[in-house]
Fold these 4 entries.
Entry 1:
Amino acid sequence: MTEPVEVLDKLQDYLRQAKEVEESPPSPVSDSSAYAARLDIAFKELSSQVEEEKNALVQLKANVAESNFDQPSTDPKKRLQQLRAIKAAYGNLTQAAPYLPSPDSPLPVLLALRNTHKVFAESKDSAWTTHRKLSEARERLAQEQADLHDAQLITAALKDGIARLTIEVQEKSQVSPEETAKAVIASQEERSQFLEEDTRKSVKALARFIKSHLAALVAAEELGGPVVGDLLDVSDEMLAAGFNPKGTAKKPKAQTGKVDSKRQRRIDRIWGPHEGAIREGYEREATAAEMRSLIEDLLNIAAEEGPDAYVTLTRDSAAVRFLIRAKVAQFHPRDARNLRLIDFGRELAE
């Protein structure tokens, strides 16, 4: 028990000396050169200590190799010898005084500075990691709050819908079958009137569009001009003058009050013989009438005979080609003289 007490006494003496050095007033010679000298002394002490430890390690390895301490021996005598050697080694280590730098050595300050720098770097990394995790947590919180708000809105809407359906069911349960049938008939009639009115408005809007914009473009294609869409501004003068074989509008002729014979022949060939004077814009008006008639025939036969019914064409006109390109109508698979509307609502109904 005396050896541990001696070691403890040495440690206490070292602490006492170090405290006296710290409390003693600074020496007037304490400048950079003195500090460098102390660093050199501390370095030499550490180098000497390292060299001693290396020599001791080499000697210990040699003793271990000679004693064959790699594994416990099965022979009781050798095993006892090994245990005694190990006990002696621990005794020597316990008796040896630990290495402590001198009280005025800068080594404790350097170690403390290194540990402080290490703790500071770890604290900085930890603060950055904590900040990043806090930002991620705030983003998740905001997303969760938004999801919660959406869920609350959906829940409220579902509750309102359930409440309305409950009231409707209760009201319907109190209504007789005759009143229910009358209400359904009235609803269907109201819907039918709405659809008829909406259809009339759509037909009128289509007629205005054909007359003001589309008819002139289709008439130009019918007269050998550009395809509908290639030329957006076609005047009645251009239609009256006609187009050359390349599809370019001819130069309008001066107004003489007489109808050009070529224009007369074109009109008779395309739209049939015309009785009476041919006025300005006749080509546009004839094309508009032809398009309205074709669309009305397609709508009427689809309403009367079903969406698969076809209209028999009298000729291949620019109006027919335009409806085909616009995917409004389609030819019969085996007879291009028959045309029908494309049933847009069939896929929705299915």
Entry 2:
Amino acid sequence: MAQPFSFDFDSEDFDNDVEFEVSATAGNFLEQPVEQGSPLSEPRLHTLEEMLSHLPSSITYTTHPIPSARLNFDALCLPRRDLFDIRAQVMAEEDPCSLDSNATAGLLSDDILSRVYEGGFKTWECSIDLAKYISDLLATGQLVLPGMDTRIIELGAGTALPTATLLQYLALNARSSTKTHITVADYNAQVLALATIPNLLLTFVSAQPTYQPWPPEGDLDISPAMTSSFATALHAAGTHLSVISGAWGSAFVSLLSHTSTDGRANDENVTAMQRPTLTLILASETIYSPSSIRAFTQTVMALLEANSKRPTDQAVALVAAKRVYFGVGGGVDEFLAVLAEIGGYGRCVWDSSHGEGGGNGVGRCILEVGVRPVG
């Protein structure tokens, strides 16, 4: 099994010395039972074309800078579809995005409804932390894209700022013969169609020379020609985008592992990447609920194990979270406790007390998570 992939910063802005020792017991991470409750949405694979078909003729956006803590590195600027624009689309349509009408209640009220709507329309604080951290990895050369075949999986993607950071970097930098396979996953298909994919489309378009200078805010006209060219341009650049909705668990992992590089289900069980591959799993604000921490942790560990079986492969997860979710019950300690049961390591690579803000408010951190080698 490949050694853990480690991002080793030397800056005092990052806490590299805090490591959480956990059990080295490896095995089938999905064997343990998940808490019972109301029925969960079954995972479902969506095509990019299906997601793009739900876009209106125009979307309103605001561009947000994702600054790097590194000197001499320009901030990435990510356009994000405005929440009021999503609400306006939903309210104007008789059958708003028939993919997942249950999420509409959460969109209109901003409330998280467990196993119904998990908050994906909102950009949460820790997703910004993770986007900034990824920006720093790119700025310092700790993460090189394209360098080797890369698989990026964002769990609980929502507005997908971490993935958008990587996509913009890919769009702005020279290509090589390597492939990049991006999977964005969220519990709600409606979030994916109305927030995640529009934000990735905006990010990609904003990096194209024909759209320069890019206005910091405004409306982007959406036409069939644009959405078609988006899919074509991604493919030509060696970047493949797949979309999965539904709950974490064994069915989710199975669906993802049977997805080929064109983002479609592969009945012949061909792996997504044949050459040495870096798998980067991203997640932010996904451990707030005790009822879903175990399923999330099992899913992350199963994906890490599945993508690090060959000595030439590397796999790591970056999980951004608040240390404690007051009034809810989840948090970093609860996550690490489950991690300890099923084998792995967790290492704090960034802490809000060392960065901008001086640690005011609820503590936040980013954990590097991997499979601990046996022996």
Entry 3:
Amino acid sequence: MILKPRRTRFICVSDTHNASPPSSFQLPAGDVLIHAGDLTKQGTYAELKKTLEWIEEADFEAKIVVAGNHDITLDPDFYKQHYAYFHKQNPQNPASCLNLIQGHPSIKFLNHESASINLLKPDGPRTTFKVFGSPYSPAKDIVITHTPPKFHCDESKNQDATGCESLREALWRVRPPLAICGHVHEGRGVERVVWDLTASNIKYKEYDTGYWIDPGAGNKKQSLVDLSSRGPDPLRTSTSSKFHDKACHSGRALKTSWRWRSESGISDHQTAVQGEPVPAIQDHPPMSIPHRHSSATRGQGGIPPSARCDLIALTDRLDRLDRQETCIVNAAMMATSWPYQSRHGSKFNKPIVIDIDLPQWEDSA
């Protein structure tokens, strides 16, 4: 029996830099809290302790955290080499900091690792998902990194694209429904990337990008992104396509909360990356996957057994063929840039609320 997916609400934050609710920002209610790094300013034990206390007390069934570049004591090898630059007068113990974050039973700390999460509360969605604190995995649900991918939610105050190209390429290959990040404060926002899986002569190509219109900007509303089947803009994924395929195929439905690059005259970041835009999401023809392939073919689309195509990325054995979109969320809370202080003090963004359909882990009826 195939169980119908259920809407699950994620509250996404990043770059809180010692700030906490309710004094600096408000946390909406939800099922899962995700913190995409930079919990602290300097990574000291005292800073970590303060931040982990409010995360521990937050009322969410699951809480998932990755470290950022300011949380330097959570990377013992890096800290051993560079501690004098950061904490010359007051060296910290990275083992104690790791024990601190790992000692909170309700917080799942991911350090280049994965976890399977089952939401078990009887009054909750009772859904299941796999989450990765590193992008280099073929599994399919959520990727959390501190740094954004190149050209998406990564524009600095100097209008430079400061994201990671290797991460963007990995997302093309894995195509998770959600990729949550932070780091670039000015890049806070949400983009929907429609991947091109058919081009045989352009690496890591994208069809289109949808730019989120924040309903919570300048008012008291939540900064909500509704990607569920209940909303007007369901995400095109293998989970969704089984139950609301018609809604996903409607180009009109995708225009309500998003400004699409192909329809608004926004120039491409890079022709070799974006390629020629198309006006709507399109289906791809069935693909037969040979058993043997060369690792040298990675990085391009097309129909196998073309010598140019990325056979691993296009294989349907991992249920990736139906995954044509990734929603990239930069959830930076700190609205000001380094050193975070303006004449009027630090300013904060709202948490970004994501509603998305996920499979049930068991029949709760």
Entry 4:
Amino acid sequence: MRLSRFIAIFSLAISALAAPAPAITPSPVAHYAPLEERAGTTPTPTGTLCAAGSPTALPLNQTQLVDGITGCVGVQALGTNLTRNDIVNGVCKPFTLIFARGTTEDPNLGNLVGPPFVYALNATFGTNNVAVQGVDNYPGSPAEFCAGGSPEGSQNLAKLISQTRKQCPQTKLCVTGYSQGSAVVHNGISQLSADDTAFINSVVLFGDPDNGKPVGKVPANKVRTKCRPGDNICAGGDMVLQPHLSYCHDVAAEAAFVQARFLVGNVGS
């Protein structure tokens, strides 16, 4: 999402979360940070702010955030910094998730979608069968969003995929992104060799600003894009509305898709 901070919103919303993980309540701030728009979108539903290089101080409605996440399991308050580095640490499991978080979310799994998706995958496959790796070296800044997605994050995601194939050749790999993280997935996978691309078992994108574009050369039947009706980000805009904040409600359905792909296999499918 396109907020450089939403600390105040999280401090107001955290009481509404149904998350089992401990949460850190951050200090409130007196204002909302600006939203910025993605460059190069045609048409641009909300103007040409990114192209002009100037942000606008459009606040995010805190009620929309509370409504978006209420009832979700696993959402993390800003400042929690939930981090998983299983691939970096040499851990191999039957199933592996590489996740790229949204703009300004905490490293390295984010807050709104990454932790709930991990929770859903653990419930689907069993915790002991799941390795999780967040994308590091990824600032996830609004400026990078405007430029089409973090170059550093994209390069690191590509390296993590290659490392996973070499290190854990028997695992089934799912590559997932939320918001700017989806752009990082598009960009990173486009940098892969044919062998690394074929190794990917599934791709799941939540709130994809590049909605409708292919994901490198990954076959379409391996890709699932979840864009909620009314999500301005999926339409190429810069407005973070309630639909973009509500993807935690979709993680179980997307985990079921991932499970179906897991049962099919990798190369040639």
